[in-house]
Amino acid sequence: MAETLQDRSVLHASTRPDVPAIVFEGRATTYAQLHLASNQTAHALLAEGLGRGSRVCFLGRETDYYYDLAIGCAKSGTVLVPINWRLTAAEVDHILRDSQAEVLFVEPEFRKVADRALGDLPTVRKVVDLDGGAGFAAWKAGASTEDLHPGTTTDDPVVQMYTSGTTGMPKGVVLAHRTFFTFIANMQRHHLDWIDWRPEDRSLSLFPGLHAGGMAWFMHQFNVGGTSIVMRSFIAEEAVKLIHDEAVTTIWAAPAMLHMLLAEPAASREQFASLRKIVYGGSPITRELMLRCAEGFPCELVQAYASAETGSFVTCLTAAEHVPGNPKLASAGRVMPGNEVKIVDEDGKELPRGEIGRVCIQSPAHFIEYWRRPEASADMIRGDWLYMGDSGYLDEDGYLFLRDRINDTIIVAGQNIYPVEVEDHLRAHPAVEDVAVFGVPDERWGETVRAAVVLRPGGEATPRELMKFLRGKLADFKIPTGYQFVPDLPRNPTGKVLRRVLRDEYQPA
Questions:
Q1: What is the pLDDT of residue 117?
Q2: What gap in Å lies between CA 155 and CA 143, rounded to an integer?
């Protein structure tokens, strides 16, 4: 059987018809029900005049019918384009235009945002106003539930995820069906369960399905025939309750989300007793948080490195390696089967172990292209390698240590400074809760180092004290020369710190 979402839907409908595929707000949708519902969605999309490769946008929060639409797009040969509801009107306008969307599904609370762009969008032929599941059902009422055969293969596009846009306007990352199959196949081939999805799992992603990580997590669980618990949006208090009430077994989260879960009054090992594994990514875990997680969650902890462009996980720090004092905890783990990693300099020459450079990856799950961005695609995809926007190094044991985003590197008088290194030292100060380091223009040095600091409750520190604290720990040119104390750090919807916002708003204390 071909590795496509439509074929997997057929398989599960016949072999696991009564198993819940999705649970949303207490409402369960079995694989048999999802198969028929997504068939109907596919027929309704074709009735709108869409053809193979047509783009279908969704602007709303997480729901069960969002995934009905995702599978329906696969079955009709169309491509789903999720629009993150947290984006600005300008970013929504950009995605609608850039994707050349022909149909837009929009929930009522975001209709005003969509209307600002719809006046002069020649490609949009239909806007479907959604009012919960009833609105979606009304749109496709009367359409056939018969199986479809769109003729797409595992290499054809099925989802187009827009990057978070930390620099410039978002780019459309086009993903194929194979994106959601190759990782599981490689892990099974090597008999590894570092990161796994089981048919009996009840899985929860704290990343939304409007994000590449959330979509991939759902689709991997869908492919093995397990159950996905879906949240409308991440709220820590609700997530803690949901984990208990729905007997969640696996979670995909950012370290900051785990911190928020453990901070909830209801959090306890008993509340999380159903969990068998938590996979986290987006940043390394701090020793303090790792210890809190080990104490608060009665399950395995696993770190993974991935991006929208890689399509799936590339490296893994296994549960067995989550041991206090293990120096590998600062890494993103080892390369996983089926992937390759190398580090190159600015000329593309591979660097020896231990030297910092650009991270390059080979992944069978990798994206097809940046939609309508041939130059950007060519810059990222060079032969068999993806040239990532991350800098880092491989140690002697083959563990990947990420240093920073390439465009976050600070250059002071020709010296490269990687913010993560400075941040790690500042977080060791007893008064510091969180910190982000960034560069600002400087007439003399080109750039100079600045820090935005979140103090712990009751914590006190001055810029002078922090500078003295760093002396002897860092080279003088790496020590921030200006500090701003802030209540929290600006982050995008996936939890990444927006350094560009800090650069734009920086006002020294």
A1: 76
A2: 28
Does the structural domain 1-176 have CATH classification 3.40.50.12780?
yes
- What is the pTM assigned to this prediction? 0.87
Strand order in the sheet with 277-280: 27-30, 20-24, 227-230, 202-205, 250-253, 277-280, 300-305, 315-317, 334-335
Output the CA–CA distances (angstroms, integers) from residue 273 to 196, 218, 295, 400, in the order listed. Answer: 19, 22, 12, 32
Q: Do residues 81 and 172 lie in contact, with contact meaning Cβ atoms separated by under 8 Å?
A: yes
Could you tell me the CA-to-CA distances from 288 to 285, 421, 435, 456 in Å, in that order? Answer: 8, 17, 15, 14
- Looking at residue 166, its pLDDT comes to 46
Nearest to 509 by CA among 472, 480, 478: 480
* pLDDT < 50 regions, the chain: 166-167
- What does the pLDDT read at residue 1? 56
Q: What is the DSSP letter of 40?
A: H
Q: Of 174, 161, 197, 185, which is closest to residue 57 (Cα–Cα)?
A: 161
Compute CA 349 distance to the chain's CA centroid, rounded to the nearest angstrom.
Answer: 29
Topology of domain 338-404, CATH: Luciferase; domain 3 (2.30.38)
